[in-house]
């Protein structure tokens, strides 16, 4: 029989205290991935412009971020913080364009998993500044990641093309996804690398959590401004090609992308990074996203092969694990030497290049 003292210690354990945050992280990622599937369904069925759709979502998102964070209030921001945030806005704008086009051409499953290609930045930083003895392990991790993306491009996660599917006919509502070449997968992979780069820049510029949120509002606003001329050019070209063009509208696709795909996911990822020490391109984050993808693939009745998807996800997770092994070993050695020194852990999370 457990004593009251032991029960109170179990309730005060870090794992028990982090359970609500883990639930919030799972729900937040589920809603974000739901918005991705809604966006893909809208773009594929209506043929709407990716740039115009993203720009229409970023305009209200930037207004909401500015209203929530009010970067003009409080302690004045220095030029060393504002200028990199504006540059980060240009990177964010390019990321949204590439990711949107990759989503439309490759499908939601491939586009979401390709975002984890940002682990390449961790490999690059560890190779340049780490120990050479881990080089072969990181090369093996990169090879495993490349193999996972290659298998995804060949349709292993699709019931129609997967070698692990034994059905002659597949009852699905969406047959737009098909076998792709690695050249087509390059677009979402580059978007994933840019996504990791913008996270690294934001982590370098903002040393405090509140400052990070204020600068993120500036970044999203700058990204909206950089997207404005591209969106107008795309609108003009589309208007001249078809004089009777009508812009289709879907309230759920726009609202879910704004609320879940841009705003909510930022706060959810911030909580996961600050409280759960879970960076985006990590096997733990991939496991959460994989479970959400399985749910959405079943709900939307996509051309989906569960065994093929699990195999591709395991290979990708192994590649990320091997590619980022040096950072974990350093973190573990510091925690082992002085477990009470939280400052060293925080400095390590800031100084390394987690993606």
Model description:
Keywords: Membrane, Transmembrane, Transmembrane helix. The chain is mainly alpha-helical. The chain has helices at 4-11, 14-46, 50-69, 79-106, 108-114, 119-129, 135-153, 182-205, 209-241, 251-274, 283-299, 306-323, 325-337, 342-351. The protein has one domain. The protein contains 14 helices and no strands. The chain is 75% helix and 0% strand. The chain is globular and about 60 Å long.
Break the fold down into its secondary structure elements and pairings.
Elements: H1 4-11, H2 14-46, H3 50-69, H4 79-106, H5 108-114, H6 119-129, H7 135-153, H8 182-205, H9 209-241, H10 251-274, H11 283-299, H12 306-323, H13 325-337, H14 342-351
Helix content: over 70%
* Tally of discrete structural domains: 1
Distance between the termini: 45 Å
Backbone structural class: mainly alpha
Please write the string of helix (H) and strand (E) elements.
Answer: HHHHHHHHHHHHHH
Average pLDDT confidence is 82
Q: Radius of gyration, rounded?
A: 21 Å
Q: What kind of sheet is the major sheet?
A: none
- Poorly predicted parts: 4-12, 328-355
Count the DSSP helices: 14
Strand content: under 5%
Number of strands: 0
Categorize the overall geometry: globular
Organism: Hevea brasiliensis
Transmembrane segments: 46-68, 80-99, 111-129, 141-159, 179-197, 217-237, 249-268, 280-300, 306-324
Main location: membrane
Membrane topology: Multi-pass membrane protein
